[in-house]
Amino acid sequence: MSGTPGAAGDLLTGPARTGPDESDWAAAVAAVRRLPADARVLLICHVNPDGDALGSMLGFGLGLRRLGVRHLQATFPGPPEVPEPFRWLPGLDLLVPSTKAYPDPDLVVCFDAASESRLGELVDRLDTAGDALVLDHHASNTRFGRVHLVDPAAAATSVVVDELLTRLDVPLDAEIAQCLYVALTTDTGSFRFEATTPAVHQFAARLLATGIRPGDISRQVFDTRPFGAVRLFGEVLGRARLEPAAAAGNGLVWTYATQDDLARHDQRPYVLEALIDSVRCTAEADVACVLKQVGPAEWAVSMRSKGAVDVSAVAVALGGGGHRFAAGFTGAGSAEDVVRSIRAELDGALIAR
Ligand code: AMP
Ligand code: MN
Ligand code: MN
Question: At 291, which CATH number?
Fold first, then answer.
């Protein structure tokens, strides 16, 4: 899950960029409105999709369907496996494996992806598509499309989706609301993070007013996992290490999970996404990291900060991206190699500040 608190004002990556202006919104609306009746539209969210990526993409897809778009696909790079917690989402019938995605759609729309690298093997669609729309909320977004609706102040990409659907005169219904609610709760940590503004609660109120059931949704998305994952978490948390002197004395806590750990407990990689939440609660550390092995010498790294460190600056320096308090990158070498590179960047980041 991508905890994505108050994204505005990255201390180390320059001043916060402002959100879309009226001409951006108008261009996005026009890109949808001018689609011919037989247009093929391809929706893409980032690799290893989280609740915001899937919820924003499927919610927008359902909206396009309501507008009468008939040739519509949703996809993401990598294996076409939807994490179990999201397997009930409305709009899943739009999903196709990346290998089956339109090679040259009339319009491609990207969701919650800060950079092209997050689109994996689907990145070529940015060139082959007739038009390319980017919906996102990462301050580090590299503006890789043609029309960009990127709002670093938005708590989730679903906030941007909601605004675009409103401008397209698509009424909010319970199915769209379920998708956008999953996205919103995922990225605000269930309304706990800094980005939880009055506007976020007002958005949530509109979603709930469609009759969706927040208790059921939260249980499925956040509070359900196989017993094997519970045992796996126990093992991985048991090997967590606390380094109080790291990050210039602000403290670092980290752990790692290998592919062998997953195999021993018969678990799928996505169960590890929730691990960071059990690590970042460590009182003695400002920064928390979880290294998830994705290849023999390759690790998907999740980082969280309580505020002293801008982890997006660390992630960007190491080839990734994210937000001030929640970021990630892909690291190479042993787990110890990757942690060494993080330690070095953490010290550098704090000195720069
Ligand atoms: P995660 O730890 O996977 O929940 O990701 C936290 C935040 O960092 C999210 O906003 C992600 O979009 C971003 N992020 C994670 N991994 C990467 C990466 N390899 N490249 C760019 N951004 C990333
Ligand atoms: Mn995401
Ligand atoms: Mn997001």
Answer: 3.10.310.30
Per-residue pLDDT tens for 68-79? Answer: 999 999 999 999
Task: Out of 222, 302, 325, give the residue to mutate to test ligand 1, the one with the largest number of ligand atoms within 8 Å of its CB.
Answer: 302
Pick the residue whose CA is nearest to atom 13 on ligand 1.
322
pLDDT band at 171 (very low <50, low <70, confident <90, very high): very high
- Secondary structure of residue 269 in the 3-state scheme: helix
343 and 196 share a domain?
no
- How many beta carbons lie within 10 A of that of residue 228, not counting itself? 15
Ligand 1 atom nearest to CA at 303 = 2
Q: What are the phi and psi torsion angles at 171 (to 5°)? A: -70, 145
**Which residue is it, tokens 């709760």?**
185
- Pick the residue whose CA is nearest to atom 6 on ligand 1: 327
232 shares a domain with 216: no
Could you tell me if residue 15 is inside a domain? no
What is the domain count for the chain? 2
**Average per-residue pLDDT for the chain:** 94
Do residues 215 and 343 share a domain?
no
pTM over 0.90? The answer is yes
- The Cα 6–Cα 185 span in angstroms is 14
Is the residue at 246 inside a domain?
Answer: yes
47 Cα: distance to centroid of ligand 2 (angstroms): 9
- Asked, for residue 109, whether it belongs to a domain, the answer is yes
Looking up tokens 């980005």 gives: 195
In terms of domains, do 118 and 265 share one?
no
Maximum Cα interatomic distance, the chain, rounded to a whole number of Å:
61
